[in-house]
Amino acid sequence: xxxxxxxxxxxxxxxxxxxxxxxxxxxxxxxxxxxxxxxxxxxxxxxxxxxxxxxxxxxxxxxxxxxxxxxxxxxxxxxxxxxxxxxxxxxxxxxxxxxxxxxxxxxxxxxxxxxxxxxxxxxxxxxxxxxxxxxxxxxxxxxxxxxxxxxxxxxxxxxxxxxxxxxxxxxxxxxxxxxxxxxxxxxxxxxxxxxxxxxxxxxxxxxxxxxxxxxxxxxxxxxxxxxxxxxxxxxxxxxxxxxxxxxxxxxxxxxxxxxxxxx
Length: 263
Known about the structure:
By secondary structure, this protein is an alpha+beta fold. The protein is built from four helices and eleven strands, in the order H-H-E-H-H-E-E-E-E-E-E-E-E-E-E.
C-alpha cells in the first residue's frame, strides 16, 4: 500500500497543473489566412458586423413542389463509377428494392446529400468567422469557415468535408473538399476523393421566405461533366429543430460481413 501511495504521489507531482495544460492546448497556430492576433477569425468585438448579413432566421425545409415541375437531373457518371452504380442498380432490382449498406443504417448520408433531405429541417447560425448549419436528421452539425482561412493542404475525409465560405453581396459562396469517398453523390452513385462542391446560397429576390442553394459538383474521376442542381428551402420563422437519436432503437439485422440488410 505504501508503494502504491508513493507512486501515486509521484504521478501527481509530475503532472502539470490543469491551467498549464489548458494554456498549452490553446496555443495552436492560427489557420492559414487568419492573423496571429485573432484577425478576421476572432469573435470579440465583431458581432455587430452580423447585422449587415441577410436574415436567415428560423428553420428551413426542403421544398419539393417546385422541383417536381422540373425535369429530374442526375449525375453523368463514367468509368468504374458508372460500373459500380449499374451493379448497385442490378442488385437492388434483384432484391425487390432492398438496399444493402456497408455501414450502420444510423450513419448520416453526409455531403452533398444531407443538404437535399426532405422532411427534416435546417438551421443556419451566423457567428463571427463561421456559419454553422444544424440539421435535424441525425443531429448533424456543419461548419462553414468565413474567417479568411484557406483549405487544409490534405484534409482528412469526413462526412461534412472542409468548407470555406465568403459573402458575395447577399450570397454565401461555399467551397467544400475533403468529403469521404465512401459517401455518395446521390443514392447509389459513388464519387472519388477528388469530389468538390461549390454552393451559392441566397434568399429568393421574389420571396424572403425562400432560400435557394445552387449546387455545382465536380469530380474529374467520377463525372463526365459538372453536376448542377438547385435546392429550395421554405422558412418556418418560429419553428425549432427536434431531437433525432437514431441509434436509440437501431436493431436492423446484419449479415456475416457486418453489412446492414435493410435501409
